[in-house]
Design brief:
about 45% helix, Co_AT_N_dom, porphyrin biosynthesis, alpha/beta, corrinoid adenosyltransferase activity
Amino acid sequence: MTTDTDEAARHRAKMEKRKAVQDAEVASKTIEKGLLIVNTGPGKGKSTAAFGLALRALGHGWRVGVVQFIKGAWDTGERRALEAFGDRVAWHTMGEGFTWETQDKARDIAAATRAFDKARELMADPTIGLVVLDELNIALRYDYLPLDEVVAALAGRREGLHVVVTGRNAKPELIAAADLVTEMGQVKHHFAAGVKAQRGIEF
């Protein structure tokens, strides 16, 4: 008959083995570098995850840069929260709204070009440790920016700089250049049930 004491001993032995494996795995990781991170996929939360990472970076005393490529001048909760950090956050909303709102490709290309110029400026700033390029994938999807130039600029960023790119339909070339790619799947979305975008959840 198995006693609680036996069960506890088995569990402890199992966890000791697991810890040894984990410790060895962690000890084998010796490289530290700036990462190119891509959050893509049809699911909700790509930008939200990027802003969560920005909050983590701020918690460690870093400066953070944000460039929004598509979203227009929305009054968003994340912008309000991050701008409360003052000059530790350089926030630039450069888009003029989604392409179906502007309905003017030349205007969208011009806005995306200005946004990427700002992104280059932030990436060159040695005081910034993390740059969030929100919805850059959308600008690339619609060919508002030259893909090869963007990928080359991201791959050639200064040493130690972390960059997060968000948006659906990440290009294969960007995925190949990235260090970390997360694809967010959509299992269920409240929009399908007629629920509108809500303050504090969508923006």
